[in-house]
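Page 42, continued from yesterday. The earlier attempt failed because a stray header line got pasted into the input along with the sequence. Redoing it now with the clean sequence only.
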Amino acid sequence: MSGIIDAHSHYIPPKVAENTAFFKIGWSDLDRQLSTMDQCGIEKSVLLYPTSDAHLNMGGWLNLCKVYNEAISSVVKRYPDRFVGAGILPPENVGQGLNSLMDLNLQVISMASSYEGKYLDDEKFFAVYEFASKHNVPIHIHPQIKNPIGDDRLRDPLLTPVLGYVFDVSACLGKIMMAGVFDKFPKVKFIFAHYGGVLPIIKERFDNTYMMMRKRGFVKDLGRTPGEIFNNLYFDTSGSKSPVSLLCALEVTDVKHILFGSDFPANQNLAESINVIKNSSIEASSK
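This time it went through. C-alpha coordinates are written below.
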Protein backbone atom coordinates (compact mmCIF):
# COMPACT_ATOMS: atom_id res chain seq x y z
CA MET A 1 0.00 0.00 0.00
CA SER A 2 2.63 2.52 -1.02
CA GLY A 3 1.65 6.04 -1.95
CA ILE A 4 -1.10 6.36 0.68
CA ILE A 5 -3.12 9.58 0.67
CA ASP A 6 -4.08 10.74 4.15
CA ALA A 7 -7.37 12.66 3.92
CA HIS A 8 -7.46 13.71 7.58
CA SER A 9 -4.37 15.07 9.32
CA HIS A 10 -3.64 18.20 11.31
CA TYR A 11 -0.97 20.85 11.59
CA ILE A 12 -1.55 23.99 13.64
CA PRO A 13 0.73 26.95 12.92
CA PRO A 14 2.59 28.07 16.06
CA LYS A 15 0.89 31.50 16.08
CA VAL A 16 -2.46 29.71 16.26
CA ALA A 17 -1.43 26.89 18.59
CA GLU A 18 -0.14 29.28 21.25
CA ASN A 19 -3.61 30.82 21.42
CA THR A 20 -5.37 27.53 22.18
CA ALA A 21 -5.97 25.69 25.42
CA PHE A 22 -5.23 22.22 24.10
CA PHE A 23 -3.10 22.33 20.94
CA LYS A 24 0.08 23.99 22.22
CA ILE A 25 2.17 20.80 22.40
CA GLY A 26 2.91 18.48 19.49
CA TRP A 27 0.59 19.99 16.88
CA SER A 28 3.10 22.28 15.13
CA ASP A 29 5.98 19.88 14.43
CA LEU A 30 6.24 19.52 10.65
CA ASP A 31 9.51 17.59 10.78
CA ARG A 32 7.91 14.94 12.99
CA GLN A 33 4.86 14.83 10.75
CA LEU A 34 6.96 14.30 7.62
CA SER A 35 9.04 11.65 9.37
CA THR A 36 5.90 9.79 10.47
CA MET A 37 4.49 9.97 6.96
CA ASP A 38 7.71 8.52 5.54
CA GLN A 39 7.73 5.70 8.09
CA CYS A 40 4.15 4.75 7.23
CA GLY A 41 4.33 5.11 3.45
CA ILE A 42 2.06 8.14 3.32
CA GLU A 43 2.75 10.07 0.16
CA LYS A 44 0.59 13.13 0.82
CA SER A 45 -1.56 14.45 3.66
CA VAL A 46 -4.47 16.86 3.74
CA LEU A 47 -3.99 19.45 6.50
CA LEU A 48 -7.31 20.17 8.20
CA TYR A 49 -8.27 22.56 10.97
CA PRO A 50 -9.27 20.52 14.04
CA THR A 51 -11.48 23.38 15.37
CA SER A 52 -10.25 25.10 18.50
CA ASP A 53 -10.75 28.10 20.75
CA ALA A 54 -8.07 30.15 18.96
CA HIS A 55 -10.60 32.63 17.54
CA LEU A 56 -11.50 33.65 21.10
CA ASN A 57 -7.91 34.68 21.77
CA MET A 58 -6.97 36.12 18.37
CA GLY A 59 -9.53 38.88 18.02
CA GLY A 60 -12.13 36.81 16.20
CA TRP A 61 -12.48 34.51 13.25
CA LEU A 62 -11.33 36.95 10.57
CA ASN A 63 -7.89 37.32 12.11
CA LEU A 64 -7.63 33.60 12.83
CA CYS A 65 -8.54 32.70 9.24
CA LYS A 66 -5.96 35.11 7.82
CA VAL A 67 -3.12 33.84 10.03
CA TYR A 68 -4.08 30.16 9.68
CA ASN A 69 -4.73 30.12 5.93
CA GLU A 70 -1.56 32.00 5.07
CA ALA A 71 0.50 29.67 7.26
CA ILE A 72 -1.02 26.53 5.74
CA SER A 73 -0.47 27.98 2.27
CA SER A 74 3.19 28.53 3.16
CA VAL A 75 3.53 24.88 4.23
CA VAL A 76 1.99 23.67 0.96
CA LYS A 77 4.27 25.97 -1.03
CA ARG A 78 7.28 24.57 0.83
CA TYR A 79 6.18 20.93 0.45
CA PRO A 80 3.90 20.81 -2.62
CA ASP A 81 4.38 17.06 -3.08
CA ARG A 82 3.60 16.18 0.54
CA PHE A 83 0.67 18.33 1.65
CA VAL A 84 -2.72 19.51 0.46
CA GLY A 85 -3.96 22.59 2.26
CA ALA A 86 -7.49 23.06 3.57
CA GLY A 87 -8.62 26.60 4.31
CA ILE A 88 -11.07 27.87 6.92
CA LEU A 89 -13.70 30.59 6.73
CA PRO A 90 -15.23 32.98 9.30
CA PRO A 91 -18.65 31.51 10.16
CA GLU A 92 -20.21 34.94 10.71
CA ASN A 93 -19.41 35.88 7.09
CA VAL A 94 -18.43 32.77 5.15
CA GLY A 95 -18.42 34.57 1.81
CA GLN A 96 -15.49 36.67 2.95
CA GLY A 97 -12.29 34.93 2.02
CA LEU A 98 -13.64 32.32 -0.41
CA ASN A 99 -11.70 33.66 -3.39
CA SER A 100 -8.53 34.05 -1.33
CA LEU A 101 -8.52 30.27 -0.77
CA MET A 102 -7.74 29.77 -4.45
CA ASP A 103 -5.12 32.52 -4.41
CA LEU A 104 -3.45 30.69 -1.51
CA ASN A 105 -3.67 27.32 -3.34
CA LEU A 106 -5.86 25.82 -0.61
CA GLN A 107 -7.72 23.04 -2.40
CA VAL A 108 -10.11 21.90 0.34
CA ILE A 109 -12.52 23.78 2.60
CA SER A 110 -12.35 22.70 6.24
CA MET A 111 -15.56 23.29 8.19
CA ALA A 112 -16.72 22.42 11.68
CA SER A 113 -19.88 20.38 12.11
CA SER A 114 -21.46 23.35 13.90
CA TYR A 115 -20.67 26.88 15.00
CA GLU A 116 -22.14 28.05 18.32
CA GLY A 117 -24.97 25.58 17.90
CA LYS A 118 -25.71 26.45 14.25
CA TYR A 119 -25.36 23.51 11.88
CA LEU A 120 -24.32 23.58 8.25
CA ASP A 121 -27.92 23.43 7.02
CA ASP A 122 -28.16 27.16 7.79
CA GLU A 123 -28.63 29.15 4.58
CA LYS A 124 -25.72 31.42 5.44
CA PHE A 125 -23.43 28.53 4.47
CA PHE A 126 -24.96 28.12 1.01
CA ALA A 127 -22.42 30.54 -0.46
CA VAL A 128 -19.72 28.04 0.49
CA TYR A 129 -21.56 25.22 -1.26
CA GLU A 130 -22.08 27.32 -4.38
CA PHE A 131 -18.37 28.12 -4.44
CA ALA A 132 -17.39 24.49 -3.86
CA SER A 133 -19.73 23.33 -6.61
CA LYS A 134 -18.43 25.88 -9.11
CA HIS A 135 -14.74 25.25 -8.40
CA ASN A 136 -14.91 21.51 -7.57
CA VAL A 137 -13.54 22.06 -4.07
CA PRO A 138 -14.23 19.26 -1.54
CA ILE A 139 -15.67 20.24 1.85
CA HIS A 140 -14.37 18.33 4.84
CA ILE A 141 -16.56 18.40 7.95
CA HIS A 142 -14.69 17.95 11.22
CA PRO A 143 -16.23 17.63 14.69
CA GLN A 144 -16.84 20.87 16.53
CA ILE A 145 -15.02 20.80 19.86
CA LYS A 146 -16.40 24.09 21.21
CA ASN A 147 -19.98 23.63 22.40
CA PRO A 148 -20.83 20.45 20.46
CA ILE A 149 -24.29 18.91 20.75
CA GLY A 150 -25.37 18.23 24.31
CA ASP A 151 -22.39 20.05 25.81
CA ASP A 152 -24.54 21.76 28.41
CA ARG A 153 -25.57 18.37 29.82
CA LEU A 154 -22.61 16.19 28.87
CA ARG A 155 -19.57 18.37 29.52
CA ASP A 156 -16.75 16.12 30.71
CA PRO A 157 -13.05 15.73 29.76
CA LEU A 158 -13.69 12.20 28.51
CA LEU A 159 -17.36 12.12 27.50
CA THR A 160 -17.26 15.31 25.44
CA PRO A 161 -14.55 14.18 22.99
CA VAL A 162 -15.83 10.60 22.85
CA LEU A 163 -19.54 11.33 22.53
CA GLY A 164 -20.12 15.02 21.95
CA TYR A 165 -17.69 15.39 19.05
CA VAL A 166 -18.90 12.43 16.99
CA PHE A 167 -22.58 13.03 17.75
CA ASP A 168 -22.13 16.57 16.46
CA VAL A 169 -20.91 15.20 13.11
CA SER A 170 -23.93 12.88 12.87
CA ALA A 171 -26.33 15.69 13.82
CA CYS A 172 -24.74 17.93 11.18
CA LEU A 173 -25.13 15.29 8.50
CA GLY A 174 -28.77 14.71 9.44
CA LYS A 175 -29.58 18.43 9.48
CA ILE A 176 -27.98 18.94 6.05
CA MET A 177 -29.98 16.01 4.68
CA MET A 178 -33.31 17.21 6.07
CA ALA A 179 -32.69 20.70 4.66
CA GLY A 180 -32.21 19.23 1.18
CA VAL A 181 -28.68 20.59 0.86
CA PHE A 182 -27.33 17.44 -0.77
CA ASP A 183 -29.97 17.78 -3.50
CA LYS A 184 -29.49 21.54 -3.90
CA PHE A 185 -25.74 21.07 -4.36
CA PRO A 186 -25.32 17.60 -5.89
CA LYS A 187 -21.84 18.30 -7.27
CA VAL A 188 -20.30 19.12 -3.90
CA LYS A 189 -18.12 16.41 -2.41
CA PHE A 190 -18.95 16.42 1.30
CA ILE A 191 -16.45 14.44 3.39
CA PHE A 192 -17.53 13.61 6.95
CA ALA A 193 -14.92 12.71 9.57
CA HIS A 194 -15.08 9.66 11.81
CA TYR A 195 -17.25 7.64 9.39
CA GLY A 196 -19.97 10.25 9.86
CA GLY A 197 -19.96 9.78 13.63
CA VAL A 198 -22.45 7.12 14.68
CA LEU A 199 -23.96 6.87 11.18
CA PRO A 200 -22.75 3.30 10.44
CA ILE A 201 -24.60 2.11 13.56
CA ILE A 202 -27.87 3.96 12.90
CA LYS A 203 -28.09 3.85 9.08
CA GLU A 204 -30.65 1.03 9.18
CA ARG A 205 -32.68 2.88 11.82
CA PHE A 206 -32.66 5.96 9.60
CA ASP A 207 -34.19 3.98 6.72
CA ASN A 208 -36.70 2.01 8.78
CA THR A 209 -37.92 5.05 10.72
CA TYR A 210 -38.12 7.17 7.59
CA MET A 211 -40.26 4.59 5.77
CA MET A 212 -42.55 4.19 8.78
CA MET A 213 -42.96 7.95 9.21
CA ARG A 214 -43.53 8.53 5.49
CA LYS A 215 -46.47 6.12 5.48
CA ARG A 216 -48.15 8.21 8.18
CA GLY A 217 -47.15 11.56 6.71
CA PHE A 218 -45.04 12.53 9.72
CA VAL A 219 -41.88 13.31 7.76
CA LYS A 220 -41.32 15.13 4.50
CA ASP A 221 -40.54 13.27 1.28
CA LEU A 222 -36.79 13.16 0.75
CA GLY A 223 -37.20 11.65 -2.70
CA ARG A 224 -35.35 8.52 -1.66
CA THR A 225 -34.35 6.76 1.51
CA PRO A 226 -31.71 8.28 3.78
CA GLY A 227 -29.49 5.29 2.98
CA GLU A 228 -29.56 6.16 -0.71
CA ILE A 229 -28.50 9.70 0.15
CA PHE A 230 -25.68 8.54 2.41
CA ASN A 231 -24.37 6.29 -0.35
CA ASN A 232 -23.22 9.36 -2.33
CA LEU A 233 -21.37 11.04 0.53
CA TYR A 234 -17.72 10.62 1.50
CA PHE A 235 -16.37 9.51 4.86
CA ASP A 236 -12.89 9.25 6.32
CA THR A 237 -11.59 6.66 8.75
CA SER A 238 -10.15 9.26 11.17
CA GLY A 239 -7.50 6.97 12.60
CA SER A 240 -9.91 4.15 13.46
CA LYS A 241 -8.24 0.93 14.53
CA SER A 242 -11.44 -1.14 14.40
CA PRO A 243 -11.91 -3.61 11.52
CA VAL A 244 -15.60 -3.84 12.43
CA SER A 245 -16.06 -0.08 12.05
CA LEU A 246 -14.76 -0.32 8.50
CA LEU A 247 -17.19 -3.12 7.67
CA CYS A 248 -20.04 -1.14 9.22
CA ALA A 249 -19.12 1.85 7.06
CA LEU A 250 -19.26 -0.38 3.99
CA GLU A 251 -22.94 -0.92 4.78
CA VAL A 252 -23.40 2.84 4.38
CA THR A 253 -21.46 3.35 1.14
CA ASP A 254 -18.92 1.72 -1.17
CA VAL A 255 -15.13 1.75 -1.00
CA LYS A 256 -14.88 4.64 -3.47
CA HIS A 257 -16.54 6.88 -0.89
CA ILE A 258 -14.38 5.90 2.08
CA LEU A 259 -11.06 7.72 2.48
CA PHE A 260 -8.16 6.83 4.70
CA GLY A 261 -7.58 9.43 7.40
CA SER A 262 -4.98 9.17 10.14
CA ASP A 263 -6.19 11.97 12.46
CA PHE A 264 -2.51 12.70 13.18
CA PRO A 265 -1.29 13.88 15.66
CA ALA A 266 -4.37 13.08 17.77
CA ASN A 267 -3.75 9.51 16.65
CA GLN A 268 -0.12 8.57 17.20
CA ASN A 269 -0.33 5.02 15.87
CA LEU A 270 -0.72 5.47 12.14
CA ALA A 271 0.69 2.03 11.35
CA GLU A 272 -2.09 0.31 13.26
CA SER A 273 -4.74 2.39 11.49
CA ILE A 274 -3.24 1.43 8.14
CA ASN A 275 -3.07 -2.24 9.15
CA VAL A 276 -6.82 -2.25 9.75
CA ILE A 277 -7.22 -1.78 6.00
CA LYS A 278 -4.30 -4.00 5.02
CA ASN A 279 -5.62 -6.90 7.12
CA SER A 280 -9.30 -6.41 6.38
CA SER A 281 -11.40 -9.01 4.58
CA ILE A 282 -12.22 -6.72 1.64
CA GLU A 283 -10.76 -7.36 -1.81
CA ALA A 284 -7.22 -6.26 -2.57
CA SER A 285 -8.38 -3.71 -5.15
CA SER A 286 -10.76 -2.22 -2.60
CA LYS A 287 -7.92 -1.81 -0.12
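Notes: The first strand starts at residue 4 and ends at 10.
Reminder to self: strip header lines before submitting.
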